[in-house]
Design goal:
It comes from Kitasatospora cineracea. The protein has about 500 residues and is of the alpha/beta class. About 40% of the residues lie in helices and about 15% in strands. It has one domain: Amidase signature (AS) enzymes (Alpha-Beta Complex). It has 16 helices and eleven strands. It has an eleven-stranded mixed beta sheet, sandwiched between helices. The longest helix has 22 residues. The mean pLDDT is about 95. Bound molecules: glutamine. The site of glutamine has 13 residues, from loops.
Length: about 500
Amino acid sequence: MTELIKYTAAETATAIAKGEVSAVEVAQAHLDRIDAVDKKVNAFLHVDREGALAAARAVDDKRAAGAELGPLAGVPLALKDVFTTRGMPTTCGSKMLEGWIPPYDATLTKRLKDADVVILGKTNMDEFAMGSSTENSAYGPTGNPWDLTRIPGGSGGGSAAALAAFEAPLAIGTDTGGSIRQPGAVTGTVGVKPTYGSVSRYGLVAFSSSLDQGGPCARTVLDTALLHRAIAGHDPLDSTSIDAPVPDVVAAARMRDVRGMRIGVVKEFAGEGYQAGVMQRFEESVELLRELGAEVVEVSCPSFTLALPAYYLIAPSEASSNLARFDAMRYGLRVGDDGTRSAEQVTALTREAGFGSEVKRRIILGTYALSSGYYDAYYGSAQKVRTLISRDFDAAFAGVDVLVSPTTPTTAFPIGERADDPMAMYLADLCTIPSNLAGNAAMSLPCGLAPEDNLPVGLQIIAPAMADDRLYRVGGAVEAALNDKWGHALLEEAPAL
Ligand code: GLN
């Protein structure tokens, strides 16, 4: 029975559809795994045992009644605690929302339920998705299943750790500056930031609305594609949602052929600050792509070096505005409401008590950057840099089909190492942020272990907006070739918990 947790999502769905195993057995195996390991990992903030078993039972009933099952029917999933779930707590990793039970489902949640995916519960994250290590959660850090004393990345560390610990074969993350891809890289799992606007943000608690993008996470490229297909597509409830067909990511994941593709290596993503073993595995991946028949060229994107400072003006500016809604009147926590204080005083006391220090730092930064007299110098300049970055991408994609780089400059660092050094923490997203600023699509997939610390390294693939299928075509080919070379999937090497 424990072997069920090792199945891919595709294998699980097939086994359920054929009647080789019931959806209830699959759900129970994952709930047992969570019971066995999650005290150590802390990937989940909330486990919905009854809800998961009921959803699984409904799939088994459907099958028994002869109804056709969807491609992910009965497959368990770990949902980042930033999407609203009707009747299930949604905290965003913050004390501010402790005990808040949303009255509605996010569109993404609804699509998962419509696809008969079994939602196991909600995963840990940096508070309001601000961070790169999950240490900013108000509910304690998550451990990296490869080494529990190290970070699983962030902000979606809970979702990535749940995959790597075999607590779920599928997970959902959100990526504002790298929070799907960087956790994927440091846990040896796959994560995709779809094109901005291609997965609905309705019911996704906003951090930085012009950057936030929900997306799929899994242990294989094909599973990630199956989940991508289930959640993407136009939503009239999200005004930034793109009304265009989603490219066929599943067919692309199955192609396993990169012959004739042109691949650009981003020159700027190398040098000081990049760990030797990360660069070694990255360069081997580039060589592998050549061997597989792709044409590889070097590409320069000079404005990418300005992406990090631009992001840390734009994201906090939007956050300072979005987080104004936590005013003690509408949701969650309320402090000091004893009849002696004004509404303003209660708001101030609640925000003081409810927000952690990183969230406060961003609100202060953003409020400053947007204030009159500074707006043009800071926010205005950052928006101009954003345009320059988009132009660099346009120029690059005129000559190549995809770009590649390491996902992160280093492997997973020890918990606590960067906690008091925000600048060091922000550097984790050096390579991922340009795609958020430009709105295009990007994937991270495992490309080996760094020889110096035996920890996973991520390969990043970047595609133009609405060409998400190219990520899967390249990712699927790399994954297949690497698994052939190693004789197994990377996670099979993960030290046992
Ligand atoms: N680490 C980045 C930040 O702290 C990105 C976070 C994210 O993508 N949600 O803002």
